[in-house]
Amino acid sequence: MKTIAQISTPLGSGGIAIVRMSGDKAKEIAFSLFHAKNLNKENIEPRKLYLGKFQLEQATEKCMMVYFKEPYSFTGEDVIEFQIHGGEYLATKVLETLLNNGCSLAENGEFSKRAFINGKMTLNDAESMIDMINATSDAEIKATSLLLSGKFTNQIKQLQDKIKDCLVDLEVSIDYPEHDDEYASINNIKDVLLSTKKEISKLVKTQTTGEKIRFGINVAIIGKPNVGKSSLLNCLIGEDRAIVTDVKGTTRDVLKETILYKGIKINFIDTAGIRESEDIVEKIGIERSKKCIEQSDIVLCVLDASENLDEEDKKLINLTKNKNVIFVLNKTDKKIVLNMDNAILVSASENKNIDEIKEKIIELAKLNKIDFSQIYITNQRHTEILKQTLIDIDNALIAVQTQTADIVDQQTKKVWSTLGKITGESETESIIDGIFSKFCLGK
Question: Which candidate, 301, 300, 304, places its Cα nearest to that of 336?
């Protein structure tokens, strides 16, 4: 396999930049360009940093080199990394020199793909690594780190192993009926399929929480014009993002802002005030507001505490039926006229009780007591595979009741194969290539 090279750190000016090589000729290429006193290919020790000089075309770069010996490296191949001064042009010249001396330019994620090919990681490990790199909240890091630890992979592999053992017994009974009990083998498969279905169903149920951990809780802020929605948004996010005026209909479009609260992402969507309007632009904004209500996880229905409910308020409340709704009574700095059970009383102008809203959001989303020792499915591909596994299990169970042993064998193999798409044991090359293409260069 060709020896590849790429810059592994973001381009730009910094303390150091890392240029990485992987492949059979990595050490040979390195020593044709890097020179350190009393160091050669025979006496270099893995995992030690060596100070020396890297020979560029017209200059030398004083830098560090480290060698990772196969199969104990990240890729499972010989890996060499150069830690050079962190200049974009310099890193590019070092890479260019390696390419001119026998290396091929690595594609996105090619180092990680080689790690997968060489058995250093599963497909799930690779996807978890991408999610860890892209994580934007404490909750996402915690959930992803558990997936990256191998707990999920091990669970899937254990389920596959149980299925495989049953298939071996069944196939022996099919091939040698005089030596094995086909009826007992089929019953054993039935028991394993039922227990597998139970475990997979538990994992699928974590999807809703997993999506909120990864993408955040979508919270639509709705209300009539001038009840203080935009002022409330500014308080919730801690900065003046929404325009606040006394003019009705100031907010014409949807404004989305994200905050982190106790390690959880909350996506606030400030919407146009919902009322009857003849203004064509405002009407478009109102229609978008109604769509936001449908698509949100939670609705903050903001009402004016200094006024009694009118018909527009009642229509608005009616829109929140069958939704997780938090009623917020704003303008409590004025004389309070409106009272509602379980509503949160706030004053956006005085920044009062704002954190009470955030606490209620976390509670309604059921993220206030997350057990991060439990696996949460945060990856959509995994969710689809697990759902397909449940369909395959049901088909196999029907075969157990109605079909011959060879059909049971075929249907049960489908279950094993579908689960294997998570670890990569049975996934197609195009899917594998697509996953690794999501990595950045040099990873």
Answer: 304
260-279 pLDDT per residue, tens: 999 999 999 887 655 444 44
Residue keyed to tokens 């290539």: 433
Residue pLDDT, tens place only, 132-148: 888 889 999 988 888 88
Buried b (16+ CB within 10 A) or exposed e, 111-128: bbbbbbebebbbbbbbbb
At 251, the pLDDT band (50, 70, 90 cuts) reads very low
Instruction: Go through the domains of the chain in sequence order and give each one's CATH number.
Output: 4-106 (3.30.1360.120), 124-206+377-436 (1.20.120.430), 213-364 (3.40.50.300)
Given a cut of 80, whether residue 247 has pLDDT beyond it is: no
Q: C-alpha 161: how far from its chain's center?
A: 27
- Tokens (6 digits) for 312: 């527009």
